[in-house]
Amino acid sequence: MIAGASLARLPAMIRIRAMTGKDVPSASRLLGESWRRTYSPIIGAETTARISDEYHAPHRIAAELADDNKMSFVAERPDGSIAGYAMAKMDATGDVMLERLHIDKSEFGTGLAADMLHAVFAAHAGIPSIALEVIEGNDRAIAFYRKHGFEVVERRPASHGAEGHSSFIMRRLLPRA
Ligand SMILES: CC(C)(COP(=O)(O)OP(=O)(O)OC[C@H]1O[C@@H](n2cnc3c(N)ncnc32)[C@H](O)[C@@H]1OP(=O)(O)O)[C@@H](O)C(=O)NCCC(=O)NCCS
């Protein structure tokens, strides 16, 4: 049993929920900052900014939100600010790719990323496996995904115009109920 005194000391909850249109500006900003911080040292600041400006603009994020084959999630702090953003896409064959998982740097190592990952898994109950693409050199993300059961199944040229760079495709089985 958890005593009331212990409960009172629990940290303020970050709530993971389905993304809505109101979250678009925050998600776009978080994604742009995260891409620049993560990928500038790997693929260069100019390429990173070009890709991010093209793919992460609010109108692109809003269009994805309206796409029935994509599911988007945010992590909301008690003050209403957005601490994380994830998006998974189902293709025509029913295969699911985790296209994005980004948390604010202040949340690194807190377990929030794992909670968001599990929210994505739960939303895809019944799907046999889930895959993702991560640019080679993003060692923190690769370590995170390995820790959560993903394995590298393929190495291929990075998508989104990051010419000359490679990506890993990682995949993990999803548990059946
Ligand atoms: C990827 C991300 C969601 C993971 O969340 P996180 O809270 O940082 O992950 P965790 O701290 O639980 O796990 C990261 C692991 O990598 C390890 N790590 C950190 N830097 C590392 C490095 N340079 N090389 C190898 N491992 C590293 C950490 O020690 C930790 O492992 P441990 O728990 O065994 O100590 C988060 O870092 C993020 O948003 N990154 C920027 C966006 C991004 O790259 N998203 C993925 C795109 S596909």
TrEMBL record:
PROSITE patterns in the cross-refs: GNAT
A Gene Ontology MF term for this entry?
Answer: acyltransferase activity, transferring groups other than amino-acyl groups
Task: Give all residue intervals belonging to the N-acetyltransferase domain.
Answer: 14-175
Q: Which UniProt keywords apply?
A: Acyltransferase, Transferase
Domain of life of the source: Bacteria
The reply on keyword Transmembrane helix is no
- State the Gene3D superfamilies in the record: 3.40.630.30
Q: Does the keyword Plastid apply?
A: no
Q: Report what the protein is called.
A: N-acetyltransferase domain-containing protein
- Native source species: Mesorhizobium metallidurans STM 2683
Q: Lineage of the source organism? A: Bacteria, Pseudomonadati, Pseudomonadota, Alphaproteobacteria, Hyphomicrobiales
